[in-house]
Amino acid sequence: MDNTTLLKDIIAKHIISQSELQDLVEIDDFSSYLASESWSTIPEAFREATYESRESVPSDIDDVSLDNTSVAFVDTLISYGFASDNDDALRFLRNVLVDYLAHACAPPPIWSTTRTTECEICEREVPLTYHHLIPRSTHAKVLKKKWHPDSMINSVAWLFHHVASNEELARQYYTVELLLQREDILKWRNYASKQRFGVRRG
User: Fold this and answer.
1) Rounded to the nearest 5 degrees, what angle is found at the Cα of 162, between the Cα atoms of 152 and 182?
2) Cβ pair 77, 92 in contact under 8 A
3) In the chain, fewer beta carbons within 10 Å around the N or the C end?
């Protein structure tokens, strides 16, 4: 998940906790709008926050100026009753940013604890194997050429399929989301999801 999507999701969480809104499409549209209005005005260190860059993110959000926050963001929060005035709107944004930074700067999961019973590509219950998304045989090269941050080296997925060479996986298909952008994988997923082996999610 990229950071703009993360900010949108955190805003949605705060909206849901403070309102009676039930329509998920409306919540998604509203939080997308607020995220787009606030994204360019939050500090760059926040926009680029990751586990690796967490040391460059200010530790006390109250010391960070939000004076450049979009007027449209503030006015929208006030108009929809999520804030009573400008200060209240900025308080809402600060609370969102605290949660956002906690997620953006969180350490990666301990990959071995992510075991599932379903293939992460075709979503069927089939015999699975534990795959490093960046194959172990390429770790030294990946680190030397700085293709990815150190924290991604041991990313794993529980898969049923072999899809590409180790170097191709390391350079181009190092997440399940990137694998799912391949046309051959999507075709396989669509085919496999209709097969009777195991139980499909959904």
Assistant:
1) 75
2) yes
3) C
CA distance 106 to 39: 20
Among residues 113, 114, 111, 116, which one has the least CA distance to residue 126? 116
Q: What is the pLDDT along the chain (202 residues), one digit of tens a residue?
A: 688 899 999 999 898 888 776 777 888 899 999 999 999 999 999 999 988 888 888 888 888 899 899 999 999 999 999 999 999 999 999 999 999 998 888 887 665 566 667 777 777 776 666 666 777 778 888 888 888 887 777 776 655 556 677 788 788 888 888 888 888 788 777 777 776 554 444 4
Residue linked to tokens 């450049």: 68
